[in-house]
Design goal:
This protein folds into 3 domains: about 230 residues, Thrombin, subunit H (Beta Barrel); about 120 residues, no CATH class; about 220 residues, Rossmann fold (3-Layer(aba) Sandwich), CATH 3.40.50. With about 650 residues, the protein is α/β, with parallel strands linked by helices. The strands form 4 sheets. The chain has a 9-stranded mixed β-sheet with strand order 19-18-17-20-16-15-21-22-23, with helices on both faces. The chain is globular, with a radius of gyration of 31 Å. The longest helix is centred in the middle third of the chain and has 27 residues. Helix 3 packs antiparallel against helix 4, helix 4 runs antiparallel to helix 5 and helix 12 crosses helix 14.
Length: about 650
């Protein structure tokens, strides 16, 4: 879990949506949709009377000044508790909760920060804190350190600034008070008292946030004694583990065709994570499947009255309907259902239905022979809910311009004048690497000419139907590629599909370094495996092309896995090399393997590494038309469902389902 960072949550409340931006106060992000600030800041920004009691209806403009993306966002008042002195001399707290506009996309790295609630007044004494505000002479902001002194009569907490620095000034109202020990928010700056000699500032303690907006209790950790925030973090991690388990169980129920139970699980998940798009998409898909099941069951019941008229055809159709309840409905089955409905509505006769059934069974059908449920697969692709693994055997099936593995090995052997070579790809690369007259750079250069040959005429990207299919999908995809060419990237660029190419450092022992090439940025960026999740690549609409074996572009830092020693090193450091962001997708989504045939040890090694990241029991899918006895047994042993379909036929059928 990323370490909480105040910079990722601080916002400045702006006078108006214009340049230059003029801040009048601060606030801070407490959920993906909500921001805390002071009510008097909103009154000042909207130029309302000080005694305004009703919640304002105008738009509030704000931005995240400490992040790279400083676009102006808009929000409205969600909860409102302005200042009002009571008969007892106490105050209603000066608190406002803002809700971001529905279409708002948060800046990259923007992140809600944890809140802790100190229930004992003694816990406020002598606590070291820091804050960030916007005094009049520093519109870009200013950091201050201070020390809490304790509570005063109206429940607010007094704060003194560090010696030698100016004190809190107007412009700090609404900012978060950040506890240095707990690494979390414990209150909000609300007011200052400027005397002739000194200045004191006051904060609203966090327990008041919950009184105004009880929903915030879900993001607060209550501390009754001086403990470390790690306890709260552990509670949150435990909660997330429970939610992850719920998701796994919901997906398992769906795979077992227990749709009503799966639907209830997803609704429970949605109540815990209301902003998670996975839950809403899963609920919609399950409701459609349940409606379809009901239609099939209804037809089964009504057909029993016509078994005499239909004769043997009745029993055959009944078997097919039972299978539909489990496997779903493809195009052919949908046509059958429509014919059955016409028969039940007396629009066609029993003879017509029997004749149609006979024709249906006499026609060759790829869907029936291979038993692959194209409709379900298409739905998962539309939702971006399946990881796609692309192997080196894939392209020769689609493109005559590309060389097979055998041809690439021969090309490398010929280049090093080794005509009698009879080994595999890693072996010839190992020889290439060890031979003093050639070496790694020469190997990389030669391999590039073989995997992506250039012609004398203007180069043109081969038309690869599978890649075009992926490029036209609306949702971002995670594709793990064991290829060395760039045809997938070129197909995505041609269709203006955003993507990031992700690959390792050339030194596999350097497990921290990952390189990222964005389709819409010119500079290669770098990230650690641990911090990759914070970039939210898929969530921002970028498809991720994870080049697990590296890139071939003539450079020495592309993290190539080609020679035997590279595979051994990759296997040794696999747990640290595979980013947790990728592992999480493999753990929670389906897996489709294309063009990765387990005929050689190097391919089985990479496949084993990938499968190790999938601890639950949903089998992976693969399309392998000519699997021999070993390959068939290996795939079965690894719980991989193989469909013996020609790849071109597979793509045509899938494209028809997606159209």
């Amino acid at each position: 879990m990323p370490k909480p960072n105040l910079n990722n949550a601080i916002v400045r409340i702006l006078i108006e949506d214009s340049e230059p931006r003029q801040p009048l106060g601060a606030g801070f992000l407490v959920s993906s949709r909500h921001i805390l600030t002071c009510a008097h800041v909103i009154i000042d920004v909207l130029d309302l009377p000080e005694n305004t009691r009703e919640a304002p209806e105008g738009l509030i403009y704000l931005d995240f000044p400490l992040l790279d993306d400083k676009q102006t966002l808009s929000a409205t008042v969600y909860k409102w508790s302005p200042v009002k002195e009571s008969a007892k001399g106490e105050f209603e707290e000066d608190i406002c909760v803002l809700e971001l506009s529905p279409e708002t996309v948060l800046p990259n790295k923007a992140q809600p920060i944890p809140i802790i609630v100190l229930e004992q007044e003694a816990l406020f004494n002598d606590r070291a804190v820091r804050m960030f505000g916007f005094p009049e002479d520093k519109e870009n902001g200013d950091w201050l350190n201070g020390t809490l002194q304790g509570t005063i009569g109206n429940g607010r907490v007094q704060l003194e600034s560090e010696v030698g620095r100016r004190g809190v000034a107007p412009g700090f109202s609404g900012t978060a008070i950040w506890d240095k020990e707990e690494n979390a928010v414990i209150g909000m700056m609300v007011s200052i008292y400027a005397g002739e000699v000194d200045t004191s500032a006051y904060m609203i303690p966090a327990y008041k946030f919950i009184e105004v907006s009880p929903e915030l209790k879900q993001v607060c950790t209550i501390i009754k004694k001086r403990t470390l925030l790690i306890d709260g973090v552990r509670q949150l991690e435990t909660k997330m583990e429970e939610i992850t388990k719920e998701i796994d169980e919901a997906q398992l129920l769906e795979r077992n065709h227990a749709y009503p139970q799966a639907l209830q699980r997803w609704k429970n998940i949605q109540s815990l994570l209301p902003d998670d798009i996975r839950a809403s998409e899963a609920i919609q898909a399950l409701e459609e499947k349940i409606a379809l099941q009901k239609r099939v069951i209804d037809f089964q019941t009504r057909l029993t009255k016509h078994f005499k008229a239909l004769g043997a055809t009745y029993l055959q159709i009944d078997v097919r309907l039972r299978r539909m309840k489990k496997e779903g409905v493809d195009d052919e089955a949908e046509t059958l259902l429509n014919f059955i409905e016409e028969f039940l509505n007396q629009d066609i006769s029993a003879d017509d239905l029997t004749e149609f059934w006979s024709i249906l069974n006499s026609q060759p059908s790829n869907t029936r022979v291979d038993a692959l449920n194209y409709q379900t697969l298409a739905e998962r692709l539309r939702r971006g809910n399946i990881v796609i693994f692309l192997g080196s055997d894939l392209l020769p099936s689609f493109c005559d311009q590309t060389l097979s593995n055998t041809e690439i090995v021969k090309g490398l052997a010929d280049f090093v004048k080794y005509p009698s070579f009879n080994g595999d790809f890693p072996e010839i690369c190992e020889y290439f690497d060890m031979e003093p007259n050639f070496g790694r750079q020469s190997l990389s250069d030669k391999l590039q000419t073989l995997v992506e040959p250039k012609t004398l005429v203007e180069p043109k990207t081969p038309s690869i139907a599978l890649y075009q299919l992926f490029a036209l999908l609306e949702k971002p995809l995670l594709l793990i590629s064991a290829t060395y060419d760039t045809y997938l990237e070129q197909s995505f660029q041609a269709c203006n599909k955003k993507f990031v190419v992700l690959y390792h450092h050339s030194d596999k022992k350097n497990t921290e370094s990952l390189f990222l090439d964005y389709s819409d940025k010119t500079e290669t960026q770098q990230s650690s495996s641990e911090n990759l999740s914070e970039l939210l690549l898929l969530e921002q609409g970028y498809s991720v092309i994870y080049k697990i074996l590296g890139r071939v572009d003539g450079s020495s830092n592309q993290g190539l896995v080609i020679a035997e020693k590279d595979y051994f090193t990759f296997n040794q450091y696999q747990d640290k090399l595979i980013p947790s962001y990728i592992s999480e997708c493999l753990r929670t989504q389906g897996l489709l393997l294309l063009g990765h045939h387990p005929k050689s040890w190097d391919k089985r090694l990479i496949l084993k590494i990938i499968l190790n990241k999938r601890p639950y029991n949903e089998p992976a899918l693969t399309i392998f038309q000519q699997a021999d006895k070993f390959a068939s047994l290996y795939l079965k042993n690894k719980q991989i469902e193989n469909y013996p379909i020609d790849l071109k036929v597979f793509v045509e059928n899938l494209q028809a389902q997606l159209s």
